[in-house]
Amino acid sequence: MSRVVVVGAGFGGLSVAARLAAQGHAVEVFEQGPQVGGKLGWFSRDGFSFDTGPSLLTLPAVQRDLFLKTGDPVESVLDVVQLDPVAHYRFADGTEVDLPGGGLPQVARALDDALGAGTGAQWTAFQRRAAEIWDVAREPFLESALEGPKTLLRLAKDVRGLRTVAPWSSLRGVGRQYLHDPRLRTLLDRYATYSGSDPGRAPAALATVPFVEQAFGAWYVRGGLHLLAQAVADRARERGARITTDAPVDRVLEEGGRAAGVRLADGRQVRADVVVSAVDAARLYGDLLPRPRLRPPRRLRSSSGFVLLLALEGRTPGLRHHTVLFPDDYDAEFADLAAGRPVADPTVYVSAPDDPALRPSDDTEAWFVLVNAPVHDPQHGGTDWRSEDLVRRHTDVVLDALARRGLDVRSRLRWAEVRTPADLEERTGSDGGAIYGTASNGARSAFLRPANRSPVPGLFLVGGSSHPGGGLPLVGLSARIVTDLVGPA
């Protein structure tokens, strides 16, 4: 049995704590904030409640595996329901489509009905290619620890696999081979933002994101996805892990060239055989090690998000669980993000679950509204999200965009809570509020993401800023990878 310290109680830290504790390790988790969950946040006021992070589950097998490997199935502790439709999309030309959650054939039919005959066939052809990429990339890129040159050498020998994954192609590039309708290309571009990336630079392997969502379905936890974090924390405690909140770590201890525990901000030292860092990799390598090293370049940081939590009077006819409203010029949005400036005409994403647990009465609604945003980076000439004037102006930009696209809620607004990239950085410790850590831009992006096994023996990384990436499914896979690397008790 090893003594294991986990730094951070986000979803990745909690998942690895539960898995390692179930294997018999003595696990202790230290969280800097007052509650667990990390980016799986929650906000309540006046009976209105909001998930402030992820709003759906994809690749549910990852969560099912976590709960089965640590005890009872996920359904024993959470009410997990499949979404149908998954999302409503409105394009710049006014056309709209509901994408169903019942599988790829249903998606194709919905596209034909909404966008015109033949669009479903185009999307199906693209999804066949995405399925091939999934089959090739799933094990080496998502379910295994990358081993640097060894992994590259092994993959280079698989000529057919390389041709399928097309690491020299971007997501947008491979999409254009199959998608001739510009609205389908816009739809595909959106999936690059799932990892905070630019579709013109993100690798073709990200084609697996829409494939996973539409082939395996999208799911919601009644009461809010924050309950998932609570359930994993409960499971970790049941298996013997100890979780301490309001306990920031300010140093990873090294002894004899390997990790030896942590020092808390109050000066207390906790010895350990293994340290698992679930904090942003940039913070670990830049601030928590005695000798700062390997800080990810700032140019590789993913984008962030600007969020409005809206408490609304009345109900919106036909409102879906998720709504995506595209701008006139999607390329301009990515140009603004690349330049590090707030988006002038952003895509607007609305999450409004029809869940009585989230609203004070049946004649009210709680909306989580998100637009892509650059990270908080005033020290390097980037956007200063601490500017109250900027926050006010950008709030108006988002509300105006909603109104122009058919969802004017200003007359119904009881109050709004604003969350900026600076707030996200402060609350979670993510570098500049980068939601996904390192952006998936460029053919080598998977190999530039910090590895799960650090250069310091006994120190491992888990979570969205490390391999294999951000989002609940990949964070869950990173916990499984680290558990395998640490090994049985």
Topology:
Layout: E1 3-7, H1 11-22, E2 26-30, E3 42-45, E4 48-51, E5 57-58, H2 61-70, E6 80-82, E7 87-90, E8 96-99, H3 104-115, H4 119-142, H5 149-156, H6 159-165, H7 171-176, H8 182-190, H9 208-216, E9 218-221, H10 226-238, E10 242-244, E11 249-255, E12 258-264, E13 269-271, E14 274-277, H11 281-288, E15 304-313, E16 322-325, H12 330-338, E17 348-351, E18 364-373, H13 388-404, E19 413-419, H14 421-428, H15 445-448, E20 459-461, H16 472-486
Parallel strand pairs: 1-2, 1-14, 2-10, 7-16, 14-20
Antiparallel strand pairs: 3-4, 5-9, 6-9, 7-8, 11-12, 12-13, 15-18, 15-19, 16-17, 17-18
Helix pairs in contact: 1-10, 1-16, 3-4, 4-9
